[in-house]
Each structure stands twice: as structure tokens, then as C-alpha cells.
Design brief:
By secondary structure, the chain is of the alpha+beta class. 25% of the residues lie in helices and 24% in strands. The protein has a seven-stranded antiparallel β-sheet. Helix 1 packs across helix 2, helix 8 crosses helix 11 and helix 9 packs antiparallel against helix 12. The radius of gyration is 28 Å and the shape is globular. The structure holds flavin mononucleotide. Flavin mononucleotide binds next to helix 9 and strand 20.
């Protein structure tokens, strides 16, 4: 007698995952008797405005998780009030987002840019998705995180099947097909990953080559490590600690200022040169120093600024040259400037945030190095102030610099030619230019100071340029140095 065939257990219907917003661990939320809501971070209290008593009570849900995937709330409703509080908290970087199914969190989403708010993208079963070539997973402490320099948020993976699904998505998959597979991560997660450009839709008929444009032709020339380095080594596109925070004080001793000598017989150079005999260049190099305080009674003049830019950055010669690849290779144009540049690319542009300059209105300008002209850009006053304040903070100064020069790179000029070393070349070029700016300032009796941190996101907002098209890689404060105080 044949054994009756075992009955297949009916496939359990997948419940849609729910998205909620929650306060980050280091923040608190309190309602005051007057109806105002206050966020607390350490010793700081941040007023978020007044809400109704019911909204104040419900807002406490933000400590554990406030559902975001309901219907759009009516104007004037309690939900609308809470959403307003949540948006303020998000703007302050005090929220993270949980995507949970009935059994626990699938992922926790940590914003990396100031304006991140989850916007699940509409998806159709026929849509074909693939993992961005800029996305990666790594261990962070005890967590596995999925991130990308393109993404406005990182995804802390709580359910290992999500990691397996990402591996599947290294080749294009239709949602219809993914849905039939074991460990389907859910449309809700896919929609959030598309929103963060960790996944992207492959459009029918679009390129399927090794470097798909991912919907943006300017990405083709970027290597993975270069885009990551650019996004993580500037401010504005990640939530990691930035700048001189001395993370290893008490953990290990600093390296000595001068390297311990190698063993071996020394060839003493001291008797071979006269340290007192100075050439003009040696004198300039020795006089060069950083100036962080400027003379607000007697600011730099437009004529001095023109002379400074002429000495350090103006295009000196234009020429074209054919690539030595083959007969059909294209001609490339070059615009030589007073400083050397990797591959002769001269990809660096100067943008001037002017606070005080005699003869020039306060504002934001691009230096047209070919025409030797300043072109004003229309920016919001608050953004100009933020840029100048950032430099003041970075220099530990008590006032903004008179002129703040942002060095921005047109990355494609370099990465069109170089693989693996493109971004490193851009940073080397920025260093070369910074020393040139220092020397030109010294020569003209002006003061200057390099600034190592730049805000990618702020620059992008001021110029409207995407961070991977033209972005800041260095800054230089310029002005007339404050007179030394009597007795100093
Ligand atoms: C790449 C680079 C980044 C710098 N970043 C800063 C900065 O953010 N803030 C600052 O006050 N000085 C900055 N400096 C200036 C240095 O602190 C300064 O060059 C150094 O202390 C030596 O002093 P000197 O320039 O007067 O010789 C930077 C210098 C360089 C070359």
C-alpha cells in the first residue's frame, strides 16, 4: 500500500513590517506643565514648542517607537502635532527608525545626513532591483551594518536573513521573483533601501555593464573606495565623530614628534649649508605661518584679493594634448595654474565666502580662474553664516575669517583618467594648493590658515552641486592679520 503523501504545511502569509521612529539612546523627551515639549541631550535642553496634553502624552511613545506607516494625519489632529515634534527631533539627529515584523526588529535605520526622513519608494512586482556597487556590510561593535556613501542612513541588521537577501541582490532580481524565495526581506525594507540608494531599480534597456550608472552618469567614474573616502572624511554625510577629538588619550601614548633614527653611520649635513644664508624662497618659507585672528579695523581689500588670486590660482596657459593611446584617442584640454597638479588635471576650484573685504560685498563667490573674475552665487544668509562659523570653530578663533576659501574638486577631471588613486591625487593636489595659498598670502603681507574639515552637505546646499560631482576637499582662511597686542 502506498503511503499517503505528506501534506505540505500551508505557507504562512507574511505580515507587512511596521516602521516606527524612536529617540536615540542618548536623548530624552519631557513634557512641561505649560504644554511645551523639551528634548534633553546630556546637559542640553532643546525646546520643541507647545503641543496639546494628549499629544504630549502620546509623544512619550517616541521612547519606544512611534508608528510612522499609518494614514497621513489630518491637519490639527494629535497625530499631526506628534509628527511635527518627530520631524523636529529628526532634524536634530535625535531619531532612529525601527522596521519590525511580528517577531522583532528586521533593521534599525540610523540617519547619516541631517535631513534624513524615511520615504519608502513605490515598488511594483515587476520592478527589477540590484544592490548598488557602493553598498557594503561590515561589523561595527557587535552589530552588522549595511551602508553606502550615497545613502542618507545606515541599516543596522537585526535579522540575518536580511544579510542573505542582500547577497541575492548582487544580481538583478525582480520583486516578483524575490517574493517567491525563502527569506524574502519584505517589500517595506526594499522600499526603504531604494530610498537610500543602497538598492536601485534597473530600468529596462538601461546599461547592464560593470559600472551601471545607477541612474546618475556622474557616478560612472567613481571607484568604490574613493566615494566612500570622500563621504566619510568630510562632514555632512555621516554621523561619526569628526575632527580633533583625541579618541586615544589614555589608551596609548602619542608618537614622538621626530622619528627615532635608524642605526648606521650618519652623514652630517650641518657643516655643508649656511643656515643664515636665505634665498627669497627660503625666506618666504620661513616667514610662512598660520594666522587665525584678523584685523577687523582694516580688512583685506579687493585689490589685495585680486593680487593674491593672480599669484596663486589664475590660469596661466591653455593647451590641448592628444592622449597617447591610439590614433583615435581624444584631445584633452588643459588650463595650467601656478601650482603643480596630478596628471595636469587642475581640477580644483576656489569658492570664496566673503565676510569683510573692502570693495567687495559680503557673499559667496566662485573664482573664475580663466577669466580672473569673481562670480557671485546666490546663497541663503544662514548658509553663508554657517560656513564662516564652521571655519571660526575649526580655528578656535573668536571671529570669522575675512575671506574663507573653499577648495572644491571637479572629481571627474581626475577619475576620468586614474583608477584607484584618483581621490588620493585630489587630496595631494589640495595640499599643494594650500601651501601655494600660504606662500602667496605671506608674500603679500596677508595672513592665512588651512582648515582641515569641510562640510560636504552645506557646500552641496549652497551650490546645488551633488557631492560626487564637485565637492569641497579643503579650506583656507584669509585676511589681514590682527596687529600683535602691545607687549606680546
Ligand atoms: C591640511 C591642514 C589642515 C589644517 N587644519 C587646521 C584647522 O582645521 N584649524 C586650524 O586652526 N589650523 C589648521 N591647520 C594649521 C596647522 O595647525 C598649522 O599649520 C600647524 O599648527 C603649524 O603652524 P604654522 O602653520 O603656523 O607653521 C591645518 C594645516 C594643514 C596643512
Amino acid at each position: 500500500m502506498r503511503r499517503p503523501a505528506a501534506k505540505k504545511a500551508p505557507k504562512k502569509a507574511r505580515r507587512p513590517a511596521s516602521l516606527s521612529a524612536r529617540l536615540v539612546e542618548h536623548a530624552t523627551l519631557q513634557a512641561r506643565a505649560d504644554g511645551s515639549i523639551v528634548a534633553g541631550v546630556g546637559d542640553h535642553a532643546i525646546e520643541l514648542g507647545k503641543v496639546s496634553a494628549s499629544a504630549a502624552t502620546r509623544a512619550q511613545n517616541l521612547h519606544t517607537g512611534l508608528r510612522l506607516d499609518g494614514a497621513v494625519p489630518r491637519a490639527g489632529s494629535t497625530e499631526k502635532e506628534i509628527l511635527r515634534v518627530a520631524r523636529r527631533l529628526a532634524g536634530l539627529g535625535l531619531l532612529e527608525y525601527r522596521l519590525a515584523n511580528g517577531e522583532g526588529d528586521e533593521v534599525v535605520i540610523e540617519p547619516q545626513v541631517p535631513d534624513y526622513w524615511p520615504r519608502p519608494q513605490p515598488l511594483d512586482p515587476a520592478d527589477v532591483l540590484v544592490l548598488s556597487r557602493f553598498a557594503y556590510m561590515r561589523r561595527r561593535g557587535n552589530d552588522l551594518v549595511l551602508e553606502s556613501p550615497r545613502a542618507g542612513a545606515l541599516f543596522r541588521i537585526c535579522n540575518p536573513t536580511v544579510a542573505a537577501a542582500m547577497a541575492t541582490l548582487s544580481t538583478p532580481q525582480s520583486i516578483r521573483r524575490l517574493r517567491r524565495q525563502e527569506g524574502f526581506p519584505g517589500k517595506e525594507l526594499l522600499a526603504l533601501l531604494v530610498d537610500c540608494q543602497i538598492l536601485f531599480k534597473v530600468e529596462p534597456g538601461s546599461d547592464a555593464g560593470l559600472r551601471p550608472t545607477e541612474g546618475d552618469d556622474d557616478l560612472v567614474v567613481w571607484d568604490f573606495h574613493d566615494l566612500l573616502f570622500h563621504a566619510r572624511s568630510t562632514e555632512g554625510r555621516h554621523a561619526n565623530p569628526t575632527g580633533g577629538v583625541y579618541p586615544y588619550v589614555g589608551v596609548m601614548a602619542p608618537l614622538p614628534a621626530v622619528r627615532a633614527p635608524w642605526p648606521g653611520d650618519k652623514i652630517d649635513l650641518r657643516s655643508l649649508c649656511d643656515a643664515q644664508q636665505t634665498t627669497p624662497v627660503a625666506k618666504l618659507l620661513r616667514e610662512r605661518h598660520s594666522t587665525r585672528a584678523f584685523d577687523d579695523q582694516q580688512p583685506i581689500t579687493l585689490a589685495e584679493l585680486a593680487q593674491f588670486l593672480d599669484s596663486a590660482a589664475r590660469v596661466q596657459a591653455n593647451f590641448t594634448s592628444k592622449l597617447d593611446l591610439d590614433d583615435d584617442s581624444p584631445e584633452v584640454t588643459y588650463a595650467a595654474r601656478p601650482y603643480p597638479s596630478g596628471g595636469g588635471c587642475w581640477e580644483l576650484e576656489l569658492y570664496l565666502a566673503v565676510d569683510t573685504c573692502e570693495g567687495l560685498a559680503r557673499g559667496f563667490y566662485h573664482y573664475d580662474a580663466g577669466e580672473h573674475a569673481l562670480v557671485p552665487l546666490d546663497v541663503r544668509a544662514a548658509e553663508l553664516d554657517a560656513m564662516l562659523a564652521g571655519a571660526e570653530f575649526a580655528m578656535g578663533a573668536s571671529a570669522a575669517p575675512q575671506v574663507l576659501i573653499t577648495i572644491a574638486a571637479r572629481f571627474g577631471r581626475v577619475s576620468w583618467k586614474y583608477s584607484s588613486i584618483a581621490y588620493a591625487l585630489v587630496l595631494k593636489d589640495a595640499g599643494v594648493l594650500i601651501q601655494t595659498l600660504y606662500l602667496a598670502a605671506t608674500d603679500l603681507g596677508l595672513g592665512g590658515c588651512a582648515i582641515g574639515s569641510v562640510n560636504n552637505d552645506l557646500f552641496a546646499r549652497m551650490t546645488g552641486l551633488a557631492f560626487h560631482v564637485e565637492g569641497p576637499v579643503g579650506q583656507f582662511a584669509l585676511g589681514r592679520a590682527a596687529k600683535p597686542e602691545a607687549g606680546s
